[in-house]
Amino acid sequence: MTKALFLSPHLYQPTLLSKKATRDGYGDALLELGRTNPNVVALTADLSESTRSNLFQESFPNRFFEVGVAEQNLIGMAAGMALNGKIPFVASYAVFSPGRNWDQLRVSVCYSKANVKIIGCHTGLTVGEDGATHQALEDIAITRVLPNLTVICPADYWQAFQAVTAAAEHEGPVYIRLTRAASQIFTTARTPFAIGQAQVLRPGNDVTIIGCGPLIYEALLAAEQLEKHSHLSVEVINMPTIKPLDERTLLNSVNKTHAVVTLEEHQVVGGLGSAVAEVLAENLPTPIEFMGMHDSFGESGKANQLLTKYHFTASHIMHAVRKVAARKQK
């Protein structure tokens, strides 16, 4: 396990106003990898523009493969390329990959330990108007259960960029979960990133919030308001690597706070919250509030409307923190 990263002010800037989708971080990082690593190849299933793979396609057409609407073939081809020394990045909507080709991912990639990088785009509710059929809310659950597969959910544009770069250097299968909607950029190009390493964005003593993906910015806003108005000191931890989980950082924090809120744009069953609960059940039983989708599909709507309806805003996080703090005191 690696040591937790406490971000200093010049590496963590929550007041930045610029927004970009995490899928844009993938597209830009893949293009850079294409320039620096001739073994990197890219594959898509008829979604090059939506996954931002088109940037690589335009610059390196001989290393880009469009397989059409055939996600099982997409993974099979990538596995073969990886076993012959290439570093394939496979991008599609997460409901299709890993959703539709889970069998091929399990056997051809994970069982074989093939060096394939799977990019699942359009995850979570913020897919918005595309609706329930395209909002991947189960992909963490079906990927973290697979042996040999690393699972990453970056928090913003720059962390996605760094996660893609790290995945290329990592030997073995990696799944990276990305979002469609533009979200707050609050890290920088200099913010350190390492697979398996959590980031303590805000220290605190009363409650621990552990989240992944762009929603972690809402946790920062909630923590600020809770300290100001409720005198609650909230530690906010960004956990971009779901597997392997940074257990040391989790346990160090909970040993202080003895109360946890987990936050993810995913089903509460099988996701980050489940991973956290498994560690705490074995090592440090603790009151937990799980923020995520509670056995429900999403629906069509604007991203901010959906986040409000399904209780993912800063005010909803504040409610969960107060609730778990009260449970701790009983």
What's the topology here?
Elements: E1 5-6, E2 19-20, H1 22-36, E3 40-44, H2 54-59, E4 64-66, H3 71-82, E5 87-93, H4 102-111, E6 117-121, H5 139-144, E7 150-152, H6 157-169, E8 174-177, E9 183-184, E10 199-202, E11 207-211, H7 216-229, E12 234-238, E13 241-243, H8 247-257, E14 260-267, H9 272-283, E15 288-293, H10 303-309, H11 314-329
Parallel strand pairs: 1-10, 3-4, 3-5, 5-6, 6-8, 7-8, 11-12, 11-14, 14-15
Antiparallel strand pairs: 2-9, 7-13, 10-12
How would you explain this protein's 3D organization?
37% of the residues lie in helices and 19% in strands. It has 330 residues and is an alpha/beta fold. The protein folds into 2 domains: 17-184, 3-Layer(aba) Sandwich (Rossmann fold); 199-329, Rossmann fold, CATH 3.40.50. The strands form 3 sheets. The protein has a 7-stranded mixed β-sheet, with helices on both faces. Strand 3, helix 2 and strand 4 (64-66) form a beta-alpha-beta unit. Residues 1-11 have low confidence and may be disordered.
